[in-house]
Amino acid sequence: MQSDALEAKIGKWTKYLQITVKLLAGERKICDEVFEGISFNKDQCFTELARTGVAVAKTLLSFGDAVAKSKRSSEKLFVLLDMYEVMHEVRSEVEVIFQDSFCSEMREAALGLMKLLAQTAHEMFVDFEELVEKDTSKTNVHDGTVHPLTIRVINHVKFLFDYQSTLKLLFQEFETGSDTESQLAVVLTKIMQALQNNLDGKSNQYKDPALMSIFLANNIHYMIRSQAYTW
Fold first, then answer.
1. Are 157 and 148 in contact (CB under 8 A)?
2. How high does pLDDT run on average in the chain?
3. What one-character DSSP code corresponds to residue 143?
4. Residue 231 and residue 227: Cα distance in Å, rounded?
5. Which residues 6+ apart lie within 8 Å of 96 measured at CB?
6. pLDDT(3) > 80
7. pLDDT of 230 higher than 60
8. Count of alpha carbons within 13 angstroms of residue 90, beta-carbon side
């Protein structure tokens, strides 16, 4: 699926998931109030009454699972972060709605998807770092100006800063008790270092030492200026 189409799908998925969880939370509340103080298995009753809503939730979670397991790409990272963010938002409600043994499968599926999204996104940081360092694009910048790879990587990093709060939550999944801000800084520093290493290699295409220096200076200046603006 093309990235634009996937983003549109995930936008709808996010909306439908939030609506479904809200409706199920309302049904759970009504069920608990109606059967309060009565010697009756209200959890089983809720499961039967909310059967349609549970089926919709199961379909949504299955779709999310398929997206998380599909082929990776640098653009897809932001889709996964959007999905992780909404799953984190509804987590507490999901744990209340599916608190009993009759709904344990749904609860585990929801929490499992959240962990899968976090794990996949976390691994994609490493993938992107390796992709940048090993980039072998043959684009020739004859006049020593900023290389397209530099622009692409910096734009990617800028987008990541729009997800700072989500990334902090994600890093907590793996680095309990540590400084999540420092973890984000480490990840971004590794990406920038990978870019620097690649540019060093690309500079060797210039036979003129002066042009080689100009190429490196222009790209490093672009990186520093962009970091100063963003960070």
1. no
2. 87
3. T
4. 5
5. 25, 28
6. no
7. no
8. 27
Question: Which residues make Cβ contacts (< 8 Å) with residue 188, sequence separation at least 6?
Answer: 157, 160
- Average pLDDT for residues 74-78, to the nearest whole number? 88
End-to-end CA distance of the chain: 33
Say which amino acid occupies 226. Answer: S
CA-nearest of 76, 112, 77 to 91 is: 112
Per-residue pLDDT, 205:
87
Burial of 37 (0-12, 13-18, 19+ CB in 10 A): exposed
pLDDT at position 142 over 60:
yes
Q: What are phi and psi of 98, to 5 degrees?
A: -105, 50
Provide φ and ψ at 149, rounded to 5°.
-60, -40
pLDDT of amino acid 228: 53
Nearest to 231 by CA among 181, 167, 173: 181
Q: What is the pLDDT of residues 82-92, one digit of tens each?
A: 999 999 999 99
Averaged pLDDT, 155-182? 80
Contact 230, 157 (CB under 8 A): yes
> Encoding tokens for residue 197?
């290493």
pLDDT number for residue 139:
78
What's phi and psi for 175, nearest 5 deg?
-125, 65
Cβ-based burial of 81 (10 A; exposed 0-12, middle 13-18, buried ≥19): buried
* Measured distance CA(139)–CA(158) in Å, rounded: 23
| Cβ-defined contacts of 132-137 (< 8 Å, 24+) | 132/191, 132/194, 132/195, 132/198, 133/194, 133/195, 133/197, 133/198, 134/198, 135/198
Largest alpha-carbon pair distance within the chain? 87
